[in-house]
Design goal:
12 strands; 3-stranded antiparallel beta sheet; alpha/beta; binds pyridoxal-5'-phosphate; Aspartate Aminotransferase, domain 1
């Protein structure tokens, strides 16, 4: 199998597994206990916190471990909503956010909050003028804009959006779950107040994440209890996974410093070059300049993505048509619609996401498989919008 769906989740790095194992076997102690063995476990969490902080240039005390990226987003948005209050306030986000921001915002709207959603330009990046018009210094509020989009890989003008919110005196959160580990993210250079990250997007396991909370900013927890994580997220720590997250952060920091994922970028470019030269009617979507190095997002004229995915799976290539959470849903992606793609284009798009483990050979094989699948589908598919007219076999 050739795995090209690393934005859905990434392979756990073997060194991460190795780092985690002792904490599943010998070192199972509760880090809050008083004896030496437990203190050693607590120390390991401290190291993991330092590793995660170093990846985004934060102070260790600014990192709160959580159960996933979704939790990090929810705890921030719910706290900030409570802080600004419902009266006269406004929440500003964007139309291309992940459901882990969209759904909590809808829930706030349902109880009376005003939520404005900034649109994007045709290249998929936030429309800063519209965003600036929505941020209102005369009202209490906060903004949440994702760093990099999970479907298209575009990188938003987060520094500019953060500055606009700052001038208005608003707090600024970014869902950087698809950015951290894949590109430089520096919270001192881009002074966001809150930042969410998730381990399984950069070679740690699923079910562990973190929230960056700027030092000195007011923050109250969503989960209260035994006071772990400096009172900011109670619950006995998920030690092995936290250790894994720390190790993955250390590995990805070293990778970024070594070559900034140059090999991933080169392979992505090669993939795109093959698609463009071998298949007719291909459009590469999203900004060419401001994008993650690991994503190919392409629309294939007169080719339903659902059919392509079946053929590719049969050929041993795993990728997706959008975000993993949207798999199986019929409606075209909200991200692609926001960029101005037609329903037909949106239904004919593939997201191919590479990782540091993707090889040259895999890229060549997968590009050949995509070209074949498109050719086959076009030969059996009816007119645009009708969909495949045969059941595919062998
Ligand atoms: C941009 C973005 N935000 C949030 C999430 C949710 O993260 P988690 O799976 O850790 O809850 C994802 C995962 O797909 C994502 O891509």
């Amino acid at each position: 199998m050739i795995y090209l769906d690393s934005n859905a989740t990434s392979q756990v790095h073997p060194e991460v597994v190795e780092a985690m194992l002792p904490y599943l076997t010998d070192q199972w102690y509760n880090p809050s206990s008083g004896y030496r063995s437990a203190k050693a476990v607590k120390q390991a969490i401290t190291t993991a916190r330092e590793q995660v902080a170093a990846l985004i240039n934060a102070h260790p005390g600014e990192i709160v471990f959580t159960g996933c990226g979704t939790e990090s987003n929810n705890m921030t948005l719910k706290w900030l909503a409570r802080l600004v209050g419902r009266e006269k306030s406004r929440i500003v986000t964007s139309v291309i956010e992940h459901s882990a921001v969209l759904r909590p915002c809808e829930a706030m709207e349902a109880v009376g909050y005003e939520v404005a959603r900034g649109g994007v330009k045709p290249d998929g990046r936030l429309d800063l003028d519209e965003f600036a018009g929505q941020v209102d210094a005369d009202r209490p509020g906060f903004a949440s804009v994702m760093w990099s989009n999970n479907e298209t890989g575009i990188i938003n003008p987060v520094a500019e959006a953060c500055a606009i919110a700052g001038v208005a005196g608003w707090a600024f959160h970014t869902d950087a779950i698809q950015a951290v580990g894949k590109m430089p993210v520096d919270v001192r250079a881009v002074p966001v107040d809150f930042l969410s990250l998730s381990g399984h997007k950069f070679h740690a396991p699923k079910g562990v994440g973190a929230l960056y909370v700027r030092e000195g900013i007011r923050f109250e927890p969503m989960i209260r209890g035994g006071g772990q994580e400096d009172g900011r997220r109670s619950g006995t720590e998920n030690v092995p996974f936290i250790i894994g997250l720390g190790k993955a952060a250390e590995i990805m920091k070293a990778e970024l410093e070594r070559d900034g994922h140059a090999d991933v970028r080169r392979r992505r470019d090669r993939f795109e070059q093959r698609l463009m030269s071998e298949i007719e009617g291909v459009t590469l979507n999203g900004s060419r300049e401001h994008r993650a190095v690991n994503i190919v997002h392409a629309s294939f004229e007169n080719c339903e993505a659902a059919g392509l995915l079946i053929l590719l799976d049969e050929a041993g290539v795993q990728c997706s048509a959008g975000s993993a959470c949207m798999t199986g849903r019929q409606q075209p992606s909200h991200v692609q619609k926001a960029m101005g793609l037609s329903d037909e284009q949106a239904r004919s798009s593939l997201r191919i996401s590479l990782s540091i483990f993707t090889t040259d050979e895999e890229v060549e094989e997968a590009a050949t498989a995509v070209a074949r699948a498109v050719q086959k589908l076009r030969s059996v598919q009816g007119p645009p919008g009708v969909g495949p007219v045969v059941v595919y076999g062998g």
